[in-house]
C-alpha cells in the first residue's frame, strides 16, 4: 500500500481475550507514532471485563500481522497492554489449538 508504514511490536497472546486489545500509550511506548488519525470510532462497541474494570471498546485501529492477519484492535484504557486473541486467530484461520499438560 503506498505510503504505508510498518512497525514491529510485541503483544501478549491471550487465551482469554475475545478481541485484540491495546492502547495508544502502549503502541507509542514501542515506537509506533503518527497513527492517531487512523483511529476510528466503531459502530459496534464491545464491552470488556478487564483486570481493572468493565469497560467499553468504541475505538479501533486496523492492524495486520503475519501471525494474526488483518484485525481491528480495540483501544481501551490508557494503560491497556497490547494483546492478541488466541481464540480469534485459531477460529478465523482454522488453526489447530492444543492444550498440553
- Strand order, largest beta sheet: 2-5-4-3
Largest sheet: 4 strands, mixed
The rounded Rg comes to 14 Å
Report the end-to-end length measured between terminal Cα atoms: 43 Å
Q: Report the strand count.
A: 6
SSE succession: EEHEEEEH
**What number of structural domains do the residues give?**
1
Category from helices, strands and their pairing? mainly beta
Indicate the mean pLDDT.
86
Low-confidence stretches: none
Morphology call: globular
As a percent range, the share of strand residues is: 35-45%
Total of DSSP H or I helical runs spanning 4+ residues: 2
**Helix amount, in percent?**
10-25%
Structural features:
four-stranded mixed β-sheet; globular; 13% helix; 101 residues; mainly beta
Overview of this protein structure:
There is one protein chain. The chain is mainly beta and 101 residues long. It has one domain. The chain has two helices and six strands. The protein has helices at residues 24-29, 86-92; strands at 12-14, 21-22, 40-49, 54-65, 69-75, 83-85. Strand 4 and strand 5 form a beta hairpin. The longest helix has 7 residues, at 86-92.
Amino acid at each position: 500500500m503506498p505510503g504505508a508504514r510498518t512497525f514491529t511490536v510485541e503483544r501478549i497472546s491471550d487465551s482469554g481475550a475475545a478481541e485484540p486489545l491495546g492502547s495508544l500509550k502502549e503502541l507509542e511506548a514501542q515506537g509506533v507514532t503518527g497513527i492517531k488519525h487512523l483511529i476510528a470510532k466503531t459502530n459496534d462497541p464491545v464491552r470488556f471485563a478487564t483486570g481493572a474494570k468493565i469497560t467499553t471498546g468504541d475505538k479501533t485501529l486496523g492492524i495486520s500481522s503475519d501471525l494474526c492477519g488483518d484485525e481491528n484492535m480495540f483501544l481501551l484504557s490508557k494503560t491497556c497492554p497490547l494483546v492478541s486473541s488466541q481464540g480469534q486467530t485459531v477460529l478465523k484461520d482454522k488453526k489447530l489449538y492444543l492444550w498440553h499438560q
